Fold each of these.
Amino acid sequence: MHSVIYKKFYRTFVLLLVLGGFVVLFTVPVSSSSLADSAHAVTLESIQQQLNEIFAVLKRISDRIAILLQEAQGKKTPVSTETQIADTVLPPAEPVEVSIVPTVVPVASVSEPVWKFIEVPSRSFAGGLIILYRYSITAGDKDFTVFSARFHVAFGDVSVKDLEVHAFKDEYFSTRAYKIGSAYNNMLYVGRRKGFLESGKQDVDISFENGVSAGLLIPARETRYFELRGFTSGKNTTAYLEVSGEGLSKVVFE
């Protein structure tokens, strides 16, 4: 509606201005032929100047009407990208829930003592004192006290007696690990089973002592080496002898 009105007004106004220009042009007094040429030239210049002023005013009015028509039609002057970004209203940020998960540091498990089988120097026997078995015990993260040892013994057609367990600090079985009383020699033992064993299969338990109380202390992460010795006699051609530690490998003598 507004657009139609503005357009009609614009056309009418332009028509009036054009008519006014022609009125001014033809109403200017014209001199007789006797007037000087210089006077006629001044008149034409004055008319040209007035027409230029009229057209300038007409152009400004035309531009203004064009702007009004654009506003009436809902057209807006393009806005620069920077202005659009500056005028953009961002929605309020939503609250973010932050959950804090505690760091769990795994606790190292306490290691347990470890028993290990060690091969004997020889698996042949004829008679007399022989080394029947060897093994080691390594303590875990804490000091460990061992109170006894169990051996599985099986033999026939030979006599076995006076079993002894000796303890050492080194893998060469040369340095004694414990000292009982004032004695300190190669025959020192930390546990003993005196007398003859019955022929056949049997479990032999030997208790340990340190001269003061029962048990042998192994410091944390240290190793003690144990050796089982015994006396054999009366071996026949059909004799056999087998010894193993609790949960460890078996030694078969020939």
Amino acid sequence: MRFFRQSDVPSGPARAEYSNQSWRGFFVITALMAGISGFCLLPKGSNANAGLEAGLSGSIAIFFAILTIQRWRDCSHPMNWLVRDSEEGLYFNLRPAVNRKLAEDYPTVVHFPASSVSGIGKVTEHRRFPDRNTDEKNNIVYLEFRIKGADLEPLADVLHLERRKMPDHGGWLPHRTAEYPIQVVDGHTIRVAWHRLSPDETKALQHFQALYPKLPARKIEYPSFAAADAAGREAILADLWETGHVETAERLMRMHRGVNARQARELLDEFADH
């Protein structure tokens, strides 16, 4: 295992590279709202509210167009990749471009030789969280990379530091969220959330499992947050925080304790440290 700063990552050819392409979702919403706005402007008899409806949907379209441009700029950055496979092995980028405005106080790319990868497989998490008046089921797809002969504690420490940074993207339309899709589990496995990455997990598995040993697909069922007692909820919150589900953990903590976002982060830090 070797760490690199973003500027020092070897620039050799990659066999495959996987990156966040979430700007496409914003683009779909923008196109949809623009289409609704145009439809509202079509002559349809005596619809007195046509202008208002068109203006409202048009304003929403403009808002999402700005978000789309911001996210597209992030996703087009050369360091937006999250996982890179090369002849030398696997690179994991702990600071993808959507988080790039966070200060790089330490190396944020880690490399593992191909010989240290003992298996790659798919994991699906099933979690249940309260959403309005229902208990909503969330299915999250990961690829897990089993590593042999390496102490992953230094990597876990860097991820711990990353999740405690407070994003500040600036600009006249700031967004405070950051993404933390990489986690270390059971001391010898790296797990990467794949739901926003391209190519998708099916194509990625086809590539990886042609080159590395295959792990069997697994499903993990987690207890319902709503059905858990106070101690159980705090354990779920700590696990969410430590495994990169930052936005979900914050939302549930604010609901659970009635606190603001900053207080929620401070409490989550305390839970995770115990």
